[in-house]
Amino acid sequence: MMQRIIPRAFSGKHTPFLHTSYAFQSTLAQPIQENEPVLPKMPPFDYTPPPYTGPSTEEILMKRQQFLNPAVFHFFDKPLNLVDGKMQYLYDDKGRRYLDAFGGIATVGCGHCHPHVVDAIVNQSKRLQHSTILYLNHAIAQFAEALASKFPGDLKVVFFTNSGTEANELALMMARLYTGCNDVISVRNGYHGNAPGTMGATAQSSYKFNVVQTGVHHAQNPDQYRGIFGSDGLKYARDVDEIITYGTSGRVAGFIAEAIQGVGGILELAPAYLPAVYSSIRKAGGLCIADEVQSGFARTGDHFWGFEAHGVVPDIVTMAKGIGNGIPLGAVVTTPDIAKVLTATNYFNTFGGNPVCSAAGLAVLQVIEKENLQQNALDVGSYLKNQLTSLKDKHEIIGDVRGRGMMLAVELVKDRELKTPAKAETFQAMDQMKDMGLLIGKGGFFGNVFRITPPLCFNKEDADFLVDVMDYTLSKM
């Protein structure tokens, strides 16, 4: 008699796995053979992508290897050729559906091809794609006003860029010009970009080249899982005080950090750390820069910006990724006083605030508000985190479950006491989960962390499917 796994999306509770293997799920109905193991079904979704008629996966891979950046890598033994997307789902060239729990690296917040965002892009493209900031246009002005309204205090002046790297480069330059100092402090394991200035602030060897990177000091990472002081943020903050005392003239340009390290493995800074560090930096004449490239735009659920969870107000905030739902767009938001520093000469950005990008950015803010995506990120994200935490009790390979909202992580280790990174097992599990229809990211310095940053329209049925697939995969390792 055939045994079947009943997915939680339909049973309402977790059902133990009954089989030793899965049949790969297709988006098309298939006849079920007797004794054939069945993969838990994805939640139903009313969309069928149009047939794909483009080049084959092999042809694309060959062109990529021949014509694109050789440093670019791809996930999986057999790379995916993704050709269509709708909300929290992606489709490959064969029409197979995947649940996207990576969101284009925390970028797709509203959902793939959200109709309101797409309409805004198309309508603006039909009217005016590009002119220059030297002329007036309503799109950039309206978007700047709407974006500024999301910030506390005097953070009201917006500079638009094309990426997070560019936003962080501008923020660091502004801090140095405003203070007249060169020294910047960042946090180990942080990632801020791959241009000269931001590469200096980045503190992971995997993303650094042997080029001149001056004036940056890297403080101890307030890592609550692997850090030497656990969750004691004040003890980590003392390292910043010592850097100021022993490594600088006593004056600094600023401090830059992510509230939750994204590339670094979804690591939340220890409690009480940021308030203490911000105080020390300001006493030394520096500015505090919040890198919200990944944690911003309602992703953490309980707040619109990651820094808000720490009870601090930065002097400069940088952002990208979720700001445009996939459109190349970034921004720096600061105070009028700090913004004036760029009037000493000319600062110009050809594409920053482009009408099409601005229309997309404004549409994103409207969707987040109208569809209550911040509350959904909190509710579904909390539900998912609880379910993932229950897996930790079941699977010894899970060393840590962390994050907030829809910015979550599961860290795999070979030994919980030693916290030995399970890098190979992480890659193997990702590949197997992909074959079951689930896409998640990978990160952390050791490459042993599942990064879970889905579109904010993710629902509890999606969360159940994710946990069931991960549960099965880890049970076989």
Automatic annotation (TrEMBL):
What stretch or stretches form a coiled coil here? none
| Gene3D superfamilies cross-referenced by the UniProt entry | Aspartate Aminotransferase, domain 1 (3.90.1150.10), Type I PLP-dependent aspartate aminotransferase-like (Major domain) (3.40.640.10)
Q: Name one Pfam family in it.
A: Aminotran_3
Per UniProt, the keywords (alphabetical) are: Pyridoxal phosphate
Recorded family membership: Belongs to the class-III pyridoxal-phosphate-dependent aminotransferase family.
| Name recorded for this polypeptide | Uncharacterized protein
